[in-house]
């Protein structure tokens, strides 16, 4: 999510293509926001003020549950957690990353 130009627009597009009932959604992200990719004004976390202050995981969870904003209708959070993985950048350089994940199920009407 932190590597797309506008994270909220990206999530809105995910919502647009999902069924409005009985949809499952797996979201995972390391939340390593980068000013080289997008403006801090667009970040969904890692800020000290505004509607997305605090942690990205908390804010995305709130967006999923809310049901009146980016994700409408809303979702029930089934599970959250972390997954560790690594990227091999060169022969001798690997980047270790911890991504957080949310498994959510869209509320039935």
Task: Give your account of this protein's structure.
It is a single chain. With 109 residues, the protein is α+β, with helices and mostly antiparallel strands. It has one domain (7-106). It is built from two helices and three strands. The protein has helices at 7-17, 56-66, and strands at 24-29, 75-90, 93-106. It has a three-stranded antiparallel beta sheet with strand order 1-3-2. A hairpin with a 2-residue loop joins strand 2 and strand 3.
Largest sheet: 3 strands, antiparallel
**What Rg is obtained from the alpha carbons, in whole angstroms?**
15 Å
Order of helices and strands: HEHEE
Strand content: 25-35%
Level of helix content?
10-25%
> Which spans of ≥5 residues are poorly predicted at pLDDT below 50?
none
Shape: globular
Number of domains: 1
Q: Strand order, biggest sheet?
A: 1-3-2
Can you give me a brief rundown of this structure?
This protein is an alpha+beta fold and 109 residues long.
Which helices and strands occur, and which strands form pairs?
Blueprint: H1 7-17, E1 24-29, H2 56-66, E2 75-90, E3 93-106
Antiparallel strand pairs: 1-3, 2-3
